[in-house]
Amino acid sequence: MILDKVISKYNLVLASNSPRRKQFLTDLGVPYSVRTANVEEVYPETLKASEITNYLAKLKAAPLLEDLAKNELLITSDTIVWLNEVALGKPANEKDAFEMISSLSGTSHKVISSVCLSTKQQQIVESVTTKVTFRILTKEEILYYITNFKPFDKAGAYGIQEWIGHIGITSIEGSYNNVVGLPTAQFYQMLQKFI
Prior knowledge:
Layout: H1 2-9, E1 11-14, H2 19-28, E2 32-34, H3 50-65, E3 72-83, E4 86-88, H4 94-104, E5 108-118, E6 123-134, H5 139-149, H6 163-168, E7 169-173, H7 176-180, H8 184-191
Parallel strand pairs: 1-2, 1-3
Antiparallel strand pairs: 3-4, 3-5, 5-6, 6-7
Keywords: Cytoplasm, Hydrolase, Nucleotide metabolism
EC number: 3.6.1.9
Subcellular location: Cytoplasm
């Protein structure tokens, strides 16, 4: 099996404190350690859609590569919400979160995640896009969600697995796990390239 071969060859290192990404790796049965570096997530304004997440996933890996052991495989990832040619990252405050969710209300958007896998020898990055559609949300619903769930660590100011996703999302085309924060099927396939 792919995982057995990769695990026998590499120690996997997750460069993220995201509880959702940690849980996905645990669910996959992947043993891993966590190692993070402070990275200012800034990208050139000329980048669009998956170019942004690809850039940021590689950027998150950069400060950790020098100290990476030969038998370590580094996992970095980035997720954005892409709406009307604009990237929505994490909201700065409640007002920002309200504006983001309001802009998603009654429309469809794309959630784009990139996964970057790095060793001393090679680095690959791939992205996955999922289309998500919200029904029209009321002001009260949006405020209730922000007040009770405080989605300030989430791109686009929402978690599909939380209350707002349960009551507001009418359809999804593509990977659900991608919207949560890690396209696990794609990640699994990418591991094959390191066997």
